[in-house]
Amino acid sequence: MTTKLLFCSLGVLLSLSVGAQSLQVTPPVVQLGEVPLKSKNRVSLTLVNTLDTPLVVRDIRTDCTCTKPSWPKAPLMPGDTLRVTVTFMPTDRGAFYKTLRFVTTPQTAQPLQAVLRGKVY
């Protein structure tokens, strides 16, 4: 029983680590510093498919409508990179922490995320 549990746990851990390695984002955290209210701020992220099969980024979910990502919808072949452009237009003053969540096909075991941080004055 203990051996079965150990092998099942090991299998789950291996599948999580493989899923976590299927897509990488650079940089994972973008420090925008201080930005003016209602300004248009653009940043670029690079995604890399580290799987041996094609991957499609179906959606990039954000925390609010002030953060708008755009990216090519074509399949990302193994080893290829994809450029994501994110436009952030703040509507409120203060510190911000905006999360981008990547939805892919096939799904990754660990959802990939990137973060925009800074302060609006």
TrEMBL record:
The keyword Signal applies. The keyword Signal applies. Keywords: Signal. PANTHER family: LIPOPROTEIN-RELATED (PTHR37833), SIGNAL PEPTIDE PROTEIN (PTHR37833:SF1). It comes from the Bacteria. This is DUF1573 domain-containing protein. It comes from Candidatus Rikenella faecigallinarum. Residues 1-20 form the signal peptide.
